[in-house]
Design brief:
Helix 2 packs parallel to helix 12. The protein has 14 helices and 15 strands.
């Protein structure tokens, strides 16, 4: 009897600890809302595939954290900041959502990150690209996982200026993403010894780029840079080829591209282009394994955003286990405490400003003769260490960093 009493007493602290940990999961579930573009110009590179990637991460975690279920919600922000903010607010206030992920369209990412910060919720931003998310608009519960406008400009701009592309003209999407891409890339071009000769801005979802491309062509710039994304980039590149910009000696560069965009353009029109990516499905055995699993569900290879969603959600769920709670201000420090080592980032680290630092890659689009299959589109030119391409912590002006 005494021995049994002793065993029960000895186990009591562990039982209470486990009960306490489970009690720290709000609303008896960990809920992650994937706020994405399900119907617009970014739907192919984010959208349903981002939701699938988040669900794969939850499944691989066993579907539970600290004994409580993981639930993945999906919402279409329609590329409108007011719609995105309203949906995120409802998720936080009524639906018990603990974290919001993805967020293509930087203006939406900025708005939702501010809202989440005020409510102590986590943002796992994969598609929103403006570097301001870890700069003036940073958040103690904000995480920026895949890329940003600073890193994207660092890789390809340096390479093209070094090759003699020392005059640039920007065709820019007229919202936060395009403006940040033009700003960060323009600064890098100037610093590297080149010059920006002009720019023109177009609305999100433009289908006819005729007037914008004629202005770019007449500028005489050696490099025409598309500071946009998704279907906008694909349409602009295809129409630039129709107008003969490359035949006239001008180089085209998409500052934020992905494999879905390039497949849509086609190798005949995209061949030879340099581009920056955070992930490519055919780079390592691990990336190929994940890509095959994703392909079985989506019938397409994952974009960097979709692969990054999986990586960020998986790391977030592990951090909840370590923190013993889904409270945002406890979970994000737990995310920072562990390095990221998976198919997406072999040596990733999460900084205090929310920037996940990892290697980036410069690829060149293959010509049709080099490609061995539908999704065999890129050849690796160089690997750039994360601490060389992402903006230094001290230069970001994040108000939480002293």
């Amino acid at each position: 009897m005494k021995l049994g009493y002793f065993c029960a007493a000895a186990l009591l602290p562990f039982v209470l600890s486990a009960m306490s940990a489970r009690a720290q999961i709000s609303n008896d579930a960990v809920r992650i809302g994937v706020l994405t573009d399900l119907s617009g110009p970014y739907s192919a590179s984010t959208g349903k595939g981002s939701v699938t990637a988040a669900r794969m991460a939850a499944e691989d975690a066993g579907g539970k954290v600290l004994g409580k279920p993981v639930e993945i919600l999906a919402g279409d922000h329609q590329n409108k900041p007011d719609v995105g903010s309203t949906l995120a607010r409802r998720w936080f206030d009524q639906d018990g959502v603990d974290a919001v992920a993805d967020m293509p369209t930087s203006s939406i990412a900025l708005a939702v990150q501010k809202l989440a910060m005020d409510k102590g919720k986590v943002t796992l931003i994969a598609a929103g690209a403006t570097s301001d998310l870890t700069g003036p608009a940073c958040s103690p519960t904000g995480v920026h996982w895949v890329y940003d406008t600073y890193a994207l400009s660092q890789v390809v701009a340096k390479a093209l200026v070094a090759q003699g592309g020392d005059s640039w003209y920007f065709v820019t999407a007229d919202y936060a993403l395009g403006q940040a891409l033009e700003r960060d890339t323009g600064e890098l071009v100037t610093h590297a010894g080149g010059k920006v000769v002009g720019s023109v801005r177009h609305p999100l979802g433009t289908t006819d780029f005729t007037s914008f491309l004629l202005q770019a062509q007449s500028s005489g710039a050696k490099v025409i840079a598309f500071a946009n994304a998704g279907a906008d980039t694909a349409n602009a590149i295809k129409q630039a080829q129709e107008f003969g910009l490359t035949k006239g000696g001008q180089k085209l560069v998409g500052l934020l591209t992905n494999i879905v965009d390039m497949k849509g353009v086609g190798l005949a029109d995209a061949q030879g282009m340099l581009l920056t990516e955070a992930f490519y499905w055919d780079r390592t055995p691990e990336s190929r394994q994940f890509a095959q699993r994703f392909y079985e569900r989506e019938k397409a290879m994952p974009t960097p955003t979709q692969a990054g969603i999986y990586s960020a959600v998986r790391h977030y769920l592990k951090a909840i286990e370590r923190a013993g709670t889904d409270e945002g201000k406890a979970v994000v420090p737990a995310m920072r405490a562990e390095p990221i080592s998976d198919f997406f980032a072999e040596k990733g680290t999460l900084r205090e400003d929310g920037r996940m630092v990892h290697d980036m890659y410069l690829f060149q689009v293959k010509n049709p003769q080099e490609s061995k299959g539908d999704w065999d589109l890129y050849k690796l030119v160089s690997t750039l260490p994360g601490d060389e391409v992402f903006r230094p912590l001290k230069d970001g002006n994040c108000p939480f960093i002293k």
